[in-house]
Structure formats: structure tokens, C-alpha cells
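User: Before I run my own analysis I want an independent prediction to cross-check against. Here's the chain; please return only the C-alpha cells and, at the end, one sentence I can use as a sanity check.
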Amino acid sequence: MKTGIGQPVRRKEDARLVVGAGQFSDDVDLPRQARAFVLRSCHAHARIKSIATERATALKGVLAVLTGADLKADGVKPIPPDASTTMPYEAQRRLPDVVLVHRGGPLLQTPYYPLAVDKVRYVGEGVALVVAETLAIAKDAAELVEIDYEVLAPTTDTAQAAEAAAPRVWDEARSNILVDAEAGDAAATDKAFADAAHVVTLETWVQRVTGVPMEARAALGNYDKQSGRYFLHAGSGGVVRQKAELALMLGVKPEDVRVVAYDIGGNFGTKNSIFAEFPLVLWASKRVGRPVKYVCERSEAFLSDYQGRDLVAKVELALDKRGHFLAMRGSHLSNIGGYSSSIVPLRKGVSIFSGVYRVPVAHYKACAVLSNTMPTIPYRSAGRPEAMFIMERLCDLAAFKTGIDRIEIRRRNLVAPEQLPYRTPFGVTYDNGNYEEAMNRSMAMAEWDAFRNRRAESKKNGKLRGIGLANYIELTMGYPREWSKVTVQTDGVVEVAVGTLSSGQGHETSFAQCVSEWLGVPFEQVRLVQGDTDIIPVGGGSHSGRSMRMAGVCMGSAATSVVERSRRIAAHMLDVAPGAVQFSKGGFHTAGASRTIGVFEIARAAQELNDLDDSLRGPLSAESDTSFTAAGFPYGTAVCEVEIDPNTGAVEIIRYCAVDDVGRAVNPMILHGQTHGGIAQGVGQALWEQVVVDPDTGQVATGSFMDYAMPRADALPSFKTALMEIPSPSNPLGIRAGGEGGTTPALGAVINAVVDALREFGVSHMEMPATPEKVWRAIRDAKIRAALPTWVE
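Assistant: C-alpha cells:
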């Protein structure tokens, strides 16, 4: 069986995961551990006047009842905000993203303590931590905690939160607008609009969703009084970041904190930022002198998991009389919740807002607004699905207004291969690719040209049929530094340590494929080490499609160093000059020689030979610590075909095809699987998913799977997916990334298909999620309008 780079190797980690032998956050226990329960706010906005804990503390089995006041008294600091909210202008200029020029003074500081101190700012915010012998006792004690709230008017709606009269989430703020920035050339854009033959507009809201990973968060913390070290086991997006932030919050040296994560049952970005419970269990462990464990229940997760999306956009596209794009302008308003945890989605979305099209000039206002909702952070593809949704809706609207075919108007405006590298109107430079080829392949897979016949067949059956297409491009970067160490052990194992952290992407397999090929060792003998800060000193975890793109380079560099050192050892053993030693298929030999020395024999020699040079002796290993400055730009096309029952409004996806250029596919099977999962998440948002918050009270109406509609296998067709591989110049492996492409175009592809099916009713746009009721109402309203006399407005 071939197992090298490019081969569809089955995932080796599945052998243990499918039989229940994985080790997830809740699978780890320590002797004498206590259980923690978080008492959460029932109000979206309220001042905490007092908290009485005496009755709860007196309950038998309760070890501690801790509040925000206790937290501050012990010097525990707030959760560090994402660097995106504090990054100075000069630092922004070094990013491959757009530079957002903030038009106000310094950004408002919104300290996010693990327990609320003075006010609660969203339903579900932690107010008290109860630690007890058992979880049942902790829950009983939580009911005895008495909190005197002064209830305040909440603001939850994204657009209304930005209004001057909206209730202030933060008393000291002049408004709820945290970021007020712009990008592009306003004067040139206005001139282009003045000269335009056509202008299309779109106002839309990309609704709030939540990640809903299979494994809800859990954390086990322990403070060792003898060593003075803290230990945390918790699934996350990267242990090195968690270690650094926990050390900062607890006021200790980083070496006094160890963070471990083994198997992680889903992330999608929602586990990359530190959760309040992580520092809480460490702090509580020191207070009570025992390990403390917290396990989130699903009902809690719907309230207190970091959430995603929630963007209000007002945009315009200017075209000449032949349908060529002239300019874009508008505004993005991102709802970041009660605390400024991240503005990455806002910045990323604006960075690539023009998509894969030639847009000479543009000007955008980019704003972030605070509200009495759970904070939002990067969620799968962070801002890019929103941007592509808006751009691809504009393309269809432009086609309808100009009378130009939907595909033709795209062809006239796509950036051509010979125009790459291409600098967008926002200052981002795309590397290379063939965007039209991806579109052509996707249309061919979807049998676009024969759609008319399928639509006619559906009409015979009383159904509406529509087809939609969306092109996309990603900007993948993430934390710019990565590390790897490759060690050839004498027992026949190659150990590969990396700073990334798999949450289901198949790193144990694909990383092993790379090292197996580079060192010429059996795939089965490569072992991945990750997720332990006592072993991993540096690393950015897994997000923004960075894992293979960055870890691959580091592993390759370390493997090359191992080979070069091995060559010198082999030269000594063969009594020849190093230049005479050749390396192939895991062995070292000279031309025409019958003897080949394997890499594991070299590892033993490095440990055992006494006459080796000191620089060659010792464990056969090498490290690579690399910083990256170039972004990756995956791109592709998705085509969705739907059938709608006009009597119920139910939307059924009949076909879904996707083509993604990943640069280089290390394991095509894994990439196709990631694409399938990404499509399901994107389709889920387009048709079903939405976090619903009552605007008057701030109460979350979608608090369970009975209320929050998830995509299910029986609601999705078999996907057709294909990979393009035009190597990216951004890294030696040519990798663009492939973990997010399934999600990024899905919103646009699905809604374009739904609108196409409803075109005969005069529907030009459909807000997400396109639920049966929403679709049914659109059809009903169209029929009512058609039945009215012409003189009725």
C-alpha cells in the first residue's frame, strides 16, 4: 500500500476512536477531585448589587462558593482579548490582511473576568463557582446562592445596538460601537459610482450561529502545592496559547503552568479562545487544595459557548453597461457580544470582500458593536463565508438587473490567471490560481447545462427547482509561528512533535505520510506527539487552515536536518566523504555499494559509537522553529441545486458539487472528508441554524437541540467534490489549505439556488436561514401581490 504524500490513506487514529478508546476532556480524572458547577446569570443586562453565599457554603459537601469579588481579591486577571482588538496600526501593516484604520481614539477596554464582577452582560455569564464533593451537591448549593440584581434594559439586535439611543453595554462608553474603521479609497469609489451604468444594492443580516462541537467543553485543573505548578487538561484549539494566557491571568511564570489536551471532539474555532472555566478550575483547585473538574452540559453550551457570524451588511456594486464591475462600497457591522473577544471575522471579511473578481476601487466602513449577547469569535472560516455570501448575491443581483447571464457576468469579471498576483482594492495580494477553471469544473460536475430539463421535470411534479453557484477565495494565515521536532528513535519509531493540535483533521495520518516519505520509513512507524506544553514549547494550534501549511514546512525542515546529520554519520560508518553518501528509501549508501545503512541503524550508531564527532553523537533529532509572513489563498466553486415544495416551503437539496484548489493534497481522502463536513456546516447556516435571542429580554430561545436545528445526514445529498492542485508559492510544499473551503461558498450557493427557484414569484433575495416558513411566506406574499388590482399599491 502506498502511503506517501498524495495518497488517500485511511486515518490511523480511527482505529482507536471507533472503538471508544479515545481520550477526550471528560475521560480524564484525578484522585480526590471535586466537581464544579457555574451559576449563570438569568439576565442579559443587570447590575450585581450583592451576592449572598452563606446558605450555599453551609450545605454539607460544599468546599467553596466563589464569586467575582473573590476572583479580583486573589488577583486573577481578565481573559486576554484577541490580539486583533488591541493590535496597533504598525502591527496591522505587517499582516497580509486589510489594515483597518480606526477613526476614533484608543479602543474601549472591556475586561472579561471569568466571573462577573459588577455587571452581567449576557444571559449565561458566570456569576458564581460552586465546588463540592459531587456535581449533584454543587447544583443543589447553586440554588441557595442569593443574588440581588438591578435589572437593566438589554440591547441584543445588531443594528439597534449601534444606534445612539441604545442602552449602553458598558457604562463608561459613549456608544456601543467599539470599532469604527474604514478601508479603501472613498473618493475614487464615489467617482466610479457616479460614472456607473448600473448599481445594485443589498442589505442583509448574516445570522448568529454556534459551533455545537460533538464534545462539549470540559476542564480538569490541579494545583500542586509542593511544586507550585498548575496542571490543566482541557480540549482546545492549541495548548501553547492556553498556557500563556493562563499564566498571565493567574500571575505566574509560564513554566509554572502545564496544559494538556488529547483527543478533541470538534472545534470549528469555538475552542480556540480560552473559556472562563479553564482559569476557574485552576484557581479553585488552589483554594480548596484538591483537583477540580468542570464538565459543560449541552444546555449551558448553547448559552456560554463562543458564537459566530452575526453581521449586518449594506453594500452596493457599480457596473458599466457591459456588466464589468467598477466599484464596491458599503458597511459591515459585526456584533461581537458583551466583550471584545475578537474582531478577526470583521477584518478577514473586509480583506477579501471583492472575492475572485476584478474590482478596481472600493471603500468600506467596518464597525464592531457591543451587545448583551455571548461574545463572538472566529467560527469556521472567520468572516469569509459572510463576505462570499454577500459578493455572490451581488453577482446574481447584477445579472438580473443587467439581463446578463449569471455565469457570463462572472466570467467577464473573474481575475484571470495571467493577472495574478493580483492586488485587490483593499490592498490584499492574491498569489496564483485559475478561478475560471474551478468554476468550469464545478459546473460540469453539476451538469449545469442540463438543468433546464431537470427544472421542467420538477414543474411537472408540482415542485420548484433552482440552481445556484458561488465562487470563493480564502485568506488563511493564523498565528504566524510554528514548531516541530523530528526524532528517530532506536526502537524503530520516528516521533514527530508539533505545535498544532488536531481536533478531527486527521493529523496523525497526514503528518505521518509526510515524514514517512521524507525519511523513507514505514508509515506505521511514525508517531505524532501533540497537545502537551511540557513537550511542545512553541506552536499556534489549529485554526485558519494553518496546520499542514505551517507544520508541514517545519516537519520538512526538521526531517531534512535529520537526513543531513545521518548522511555524515553514514559517511563515518562507510569510511567515505559525506558527499559520496546517497540517501533513498530510508537508507544511506554509496554508488555501486552493496551495503545500505537504514535510518534506525544510524540512530543507534549515534547513541553507541564512541569514535563519532561530538556534533554527531546523541539522539538523532532536529527541530524547526519558523515564522511565516505569507498567507495562503485557497479558492474554488460550489454549485447547489434545490427543489422546493410550494405548498409547504420545504427546501430539499438535490445536488451539491464543489471544486477546491488546495495547492497540494497530502491526503485527498481526508480533504474530501473535511470538505463534506464544511459543506454541512455552511448548508446548516443557510437553511436551518440560528441563535435566536429575545430582543426585549435577551433570553436565548434556542437553548437545546429541540430549538436549534442542526444539519442531519438525511437532509443532505451525497456530495460530489473534486480537488485542484495548483501549488501555492507561499510555502515550499505548495499548500493553500483545505479545511474551510466547504463552508465558505456554501451560504451563497444555497441561497442563490433558493432565490433562483423562487424567481418566478418575483423574489430577489432570501434572508438566512431559508426555513420552510420563510420560503412559504415569500410564495404566499407573491401570490397576494399578483391577485391585487393594479391600482392597489
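Sanity check: The longest helix spans residues 547-574.
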